[in-house]
Amino acid sequence: MATEKKRIRKTEEGNSTDSGVISKATTDKPTVKSTEPLDSTKRKLLLDIKEQAEKGKLKGIKTSIGTAYNEIEKAYGKPKVANVECWTYSYDHPKTTANFFYDHDSCGEELNQVKPTTKLNRITVEPTYYNVQLTEHDIRQGLGEPTNAYNNEAYGGYEMYYNVGKYIIFIQVDNNSSDRKVSSISVRTPLVFEK
Length: 195
What we know:
single chain; eight-stranded antiparallel sheet; alpha+beta; DUF4309 domain-containing protein
């Protein structure tokens, strides 16, 4: 337990990631925009996302974490299936722009193959799904300080994690954009090393 706390504790020098790589911690640079209060529409959206995440859902998505692949296909149509590293996901569903990730290890099994009963473990959307543009500052104002946050040097971008009950809200930020725009919002199960 102490090792885990040490691993995720934020420091001025950096944060340790699951791969053991030290990622540099970042600090918000004050800008005129960062001193403005959060717009009420964005605040409500973020609170709704948090409330749904506690139930294993992502606002606006009918299915929840643990849903079988065949149920996702019934709800949103036949998708394309691909993989990133060892994670299999479906995308380009005819009825949604959300991406769905599954408990399927593409490194240990055939690539891009999910069974009808394979369970959903992550739902991801871009902020445009909600017709809004969000920044890191908006997220911090709406959800507070993250449970953990760091620059992911291995994959790029800044990642923010919020523990909400049995699930995690996972926010990816484009740290190359001047106002640090959010590039994706996910709800997922904790990974093995996070438990």
